[in-house]
Amino acid sequence: MPTSTSSATANVQADELRALLGAVIASPSLQGSLDAICRGVEALVPGARCTVLLLDAERRTLSPGAAPSMPTEFVRLTENIPIGPLSGSCGSAAHLGHVVIAEDIATDPRWKGAAETIMAFGLRSCWSMPILALDTTVVGTFAIYHAAPGTPTDRELQLMEDVSRVASLLIGGARTERAAAAESALHDAMESRRFIDRIMQAIPDIVYTFDLEENRITFITPSCERVLGHPVAEVMSMTSRAWTGLVHPDDLDGLLSHTAGWREHPDPPVRSVQYRIAHRAGGWRWMAQRSLVLARNAAGQPATTLGVLQDITESRIREQRLRQAERMEALGRLAGGIAHDFNNLLTVILHSAESVNDALSVEHHIDRATREASADVIAAATRARDLVHRILTFSRMRDAVRERFSLTDVVAEAVRFFEASKPSTLELDVQLPDERCELEGDPSQFQQVVLNLCANAEYAMRSARDANLEIWLTPELITAGESSTLTPGRWAHLVVRDNGSGMSEEALARVFEPFFTTKPQGDGTGLGMAVTLGIVQAHGGQVQVHSQLGRGTEVDVWVPLLESDAERLTSRPTLVDGALAPRTRRVLVVDDEPAVARALSRLLSSLGHHVVTTTDPEAALQDIVRDPMAFDVILTDQTMPGMTGDALARAVLSIRPGLPVVLCSGFSEHYQLDDAQRDGIHAFLTKPLDREQVRSVFDELP
Fold first, then answer.
1. Of 241, 268, 496, 537, which is most buried with the most CB atoms under 10 A?
2. What pLDDT, on a 0 to 100 scale, did the predictor assign at position 3?
3. How many other CB atoms sit within 10 Å of the CB of residue 2?
4. Angle, to 10 degrees, between the axis of helix 154-202 and the axis of helix 2-26?
5. % of the chain residues with pLDDT over 70
């Protein structure tokens, strides 16, 4: 009978173990398998609450492996339990290597100091079995807790041994898998590192890590040498002072403030800053730095940052050019805004002064000073007119013109502009011919040529002790075979020569290349010589540059001259036929400014025409309606209240087709010469009107 009872108990236990093993095997992970062991034992031992702790052999501590029926707070208490004779049941079992039975936690000396904490979870007894590996080393513990004091039965002890062996196999297998996984991970990491290295080699930007506590760079990619000229080894050996010493002085405070900001704002997203840094070969490069926190110290403060440095020098240059273009556009809008009113004022000043001057020429008793004052008013008004024209042309608010002009006068005026801004230590040697040296083109563009060359020369002589700038203009006759580049004929030869720093052969070869400059960033756009060449070539000329380092630079500008005034007069047919003499016309002048209308009337009257003026375009139209043949020419302003000049012209031409209409304006951005030709307007003039131009236009009218 006892034998059969024992056999029946063994069979029950075997069945229970098979069921338990089935649950363990079914779990896909170590954690799930250990949980299954605990739940299986809890099902077999009424009132039991089980735990598995795993050994950290290096630290000699136990940590949670499984405790499916325990509250989270209890599991947290079992983290990092030290192994020792007085470390509760589990710590003692791992220390001794055999089972430890705490019948009553309240009185067991191994639980002293922790008893009340454990009992607060409703636990009074704990039996712990060490989990041994095949070599008998401890790898963990299996424990059964009860709510009441007590000791295990033989069956419960046997069950604990059995499940401990199962747990040992599971833990050992998991460790083997972890070792294999670790080896595989190491191999993958090495492959990944090689892959990352290849990526780092290909990335054009600089990737780095920075230690905020030691204030130094701890890693940087090879691209630093390509971008900044500094090899990796050189950068890695730099102290914080040496690295910040490369930063532009104007940007250093901003960079230091940015670095300090990591401590003031410990949880930022990606942070950015821009600054200039010195290239190893010279010059400054603009860098955009973006960085984030890579690691923190024990206090949770940022300790290491990961960042990217991107070279944005070219984009900054483009931004500067865009801002310059925007400033020029703003200048154009400003010029356009004032040009109309200013040119109206100049019309009154210029033509009134001309009328006074005409009267003075008749009065022989007028003193010389008065005549000079009158001539000065006319000259000043003419210069003011040309200045407005140049501002509008340079700011692209009006197209460049092609007209006959004196290069001698243009160079003289450009020199006066340059003298107003040049350093007092720079000596000028200017030699201009008596001849006018006439060209056909845009005088404002040639003034820009002279000013560009003078500005370049002044910059090159800033370090010269005896700075001297020579500006010579001479007319020269080139004969056949004399020059391989200049065609035979008369040429104007402009020379701008300085004794400044000069240029290297490499710089000289690229002198006309757009955006190439030897000046530091911010001191030049690299467009001056390219613009100069374009202007001169557009006028049929050539530019030659000769320079040597330390020996200065000479720029020779050659442009073809027009025939002289004497040549033109001798080749022009003499007007002996009275039929070719200028016609006297009846002119209706329409301008909303009374003073301007009177000035235009005086101008036309001085040319022999009969003039009627009105300040009301509607009234002018009614005059034409009443008598379409009353006038031979309509001279009208463009910008007038109520009716614009072009609208008046179209209305007049609908009444009397073919009636000559001359449109004039101080400035009109929206109505230009092409529009006037489309509307049948005979001429479109810009105020203040030039007397000879008006004479020529009226002579050519039908």
1. 496
2. 37
3. 6
4. 10
5. 79
